[in-house]
Design brief:
This protein has helices at about 35-40, 60-75, 90-95, 125-175, 185-195, 200-210, and strands at about 20-25, 45-50, 80-85, 100-105, 215-220, 225. The chain has about 230 residues and is mainly α.
Amino acid sequence: MDFENVHQVDLTLIGAKSVSFTLMVGAKQTKLDSDLVEKLMAHSSSVQLVKLKSSGKDALDFALAYYLGRAVLADPTAYFHIVSKDGGFDPLIDHLRARHIHVYRHASCAELTFTWPGKKAAVSDPILEKIVVKKVAAKKAAKKTVAKKVAKKAVGKIDSEETWMERVLKDFKEHPKAQPKKRKALIAKIANLIKKKVDGPEVQGVIDRMAKVGKLSFDAEDVPKYHL
């Protein structure tokens, strides 16, 4: 929580939940309200108070990002909630969520989506549970299907690169004097042999595969060397 930006702290959200709360306090915030201190002490096992020693532009924001990174590293599958009105965190949040990290920003504690203490749990519905189980199973099956398609496509790509590489190596062995002396000429030669565009990913894929199996290298001046 960005205490420089949001001053209303509500720790009732912790309750019996497995929630860790980090309060980020700026260097110029030298005093804490006694009521807040009591709240922090009541949940001391779940609360971490971080007080910056020096101030600067966006200093607390950088510190918050650092502690968020540490928390993500400790448990990448957890859910992380930033309490701050500062929209400057949103690009970082988008970046992390694109990498399947569960991060959200809330302008106040009231916007947090935890289940609050004292609320009764919903009554279990057997029919609804069956529907949920079926949906989960369907999602898992769909993921497996997608994974198989991706794997099949990847294998096909490898097979194509192997075939193209063999075609290129065969030509270079049969015509050693015609082997390209510059990278640009090599790219054009490979593109012509495999019938692909010179700026296409297929050509670079063949070059990478030749280098990987030890058939091609480049010297300090980027001149291709063939090991056929």
